[in-house]
From TrEMBL:
InterPro entries: Cyclin-like_sf, Cyclin/Ssn8, Cyclin_N. It comes from Dentiscutata erythropus. GO terms for molecular function: cyclin-dependent protein serine/threonine kinase regulator activity. One of its GO terms (biological process) is regulation of transcription by RNA polymerase II. Gene3D superfamilies: Cyclin-like. Residues 2-63 form the Cyclin N-terminal domain. This is 21208_t:CDS:1.
Length: 101
């Protein structure tokens, strides 16, 4: 959904306003932001689904099927979720300038 994507992008921008790009990889933080956005916008996705998408995007291999790689990404995303929440000061309220159709 468009609202979830917009929320994730806003979280990512807020995160990198407060923290430098050199400390955390953007794929890891992006996955965590998508997970948080799914939770706050009530667009339920499993961590595994997000991990698979992140792994395929990061490796630029759409046919990736390595279960160990997906598990590693899932673990990384859940760890980064806590960091993103802390950096955002647990402020998940996003006011969007539009209403989804």
């Amino acid at each position: 959904p468009q609202l979830t994507i917009a929320t994730a992008i806003t979280y990512l921008h807020r995160f990198y306003m407060r923290r430098t790009l050199y400390l955390d990889h953007h794929f890891d933080v992006g996955g965590a932001c998508v997970l948080l956005a799914c939770k706050t916008e009530e667009s339920i996705r499993k961590v595994r689904e997000i991990a698979i998408s992140c792994a395929k995007s990061a490796t630029k291999n759409r046919r990736l099927t390595d279960e160990g790689e997906f598990e590693k990404w899932g673990h990384t995303i859940t760890k980064k979720e806590v960091l993103v929440s802390t950096v955002l000061c647990f402020n998940y309220n996003i006011l969007h300038p539009y209403v989804p159709m």
